[in-house]
Amino acid sequence: MADVILKDVRKSFGALEVIKGVNLTIEAGEFCVFVGPSGCGKSTLLRMIAGLEEVTSGTIEIAGEDVTYAEPSKRGIAMVFQSYALYPHLTVAENIGFGLSLAHTPKAEIKRRVEAVAKVLQLEALLERKPKALSGGQRQRVAIGRAIIRDPHVFLFDEPLSNLDAALRAQMRIELTDLHAKLGNTMIYVTHDQVEAMTMADRIVVLNGGRVEQVGTPMELYDSPATPFVAGFIGSPR
Ligand code: ADP
Ligand code: MG
Question: pTM of the entire structure?
Fold first, then answer.
């Protein structure tokens, strides 16, 4: 079932058109990776799906609703960024539950949901710690926890692992694919790293200069790249 549908989405900043008519259908429950070189428009496209950037033209549907001009909070999405700012003065539990406290959710329910999220992310033993007492990977898990607790329909990730070292990145890739298997919701994951894309994605969208070059499973892209750009990009060493 189609979950996120983009129809001829375009974005210009002043005279510069950076997204040049993207048509895309993302299936419910799919782990979809947008990959492409720096500056090709990955973040801009993701930010338009999140509602953090307005489209210049085109439409965006999520879960059967036209959300092209809807507030970010009305789209059923949660986004995890590369630079995840945790609140340094709050504990892990308070960081994860922060959005729910803002919404005046009863304390007992916050506690129950924070504990459930902590279990999924293996943060149970760290709930009373402050961010400065955590490793990079643990902090990233807390940032993901803050997104999960809102029970989003669609998860959006913008290069969430690029600030981590290689070993931790490899571990977090596995954790994120496990998380996807557990939660089963739709995930759109942006990266410039083709290895990350090839190892994590159900389906890859290759972007180049604001356009979709090819959409396919990792095997499809590997076996039959549609353009020299795709062949070069997927095949290039990091
Ligand atoms: P990526 O995430 O793939 O690296 P971006 O979506 O960040 O690419 O950027 C795509 C293009 O849009 C780049 O040329 C970038 O300079 C430009 N761009 C992004 N945001 C803005 C903005 N707020 N104002 C002007 N240009 C922007
Ligand atoms: Mg980006």
Answer: 0.92
By alpha-carbon position, which residue is closest to atom 21 of ligand 1? 13
What ligand 1 atom has the least distance to the C-alpha of 210? 10
Amino acid at 25: T
Residue 122 falls in which region: left (phi positive, over 0), alpha (psi -120 to 50) or beta: left
* The two three-digit tokens of residue 129, written as one number: 């710690």
What ipTM was estimated for this complex? 0.98
Distance 11 CA to ligand 2 centre (A): 15
Q: What are phi and psi of 207, to 5 degrees?
A: -105, 145
Q: Which of 10, 16, 18 to mutate to test the pocket of ligand 1 (most atoms within 8 A of CB)?
A: 18
Nearest CA among 198, 187, 191 for reference residue 144: 187
Distance 10 CA to ligand 1 centre (A): 13
Closest C-alpha to ligand 1, atom 13: 39
pLDDT along the chain (238 residues), means of 10: 95 97 97 96 97 97 97 91 84 94 90 93 94 90 90 91 83 89 93 93 98 97 94 77
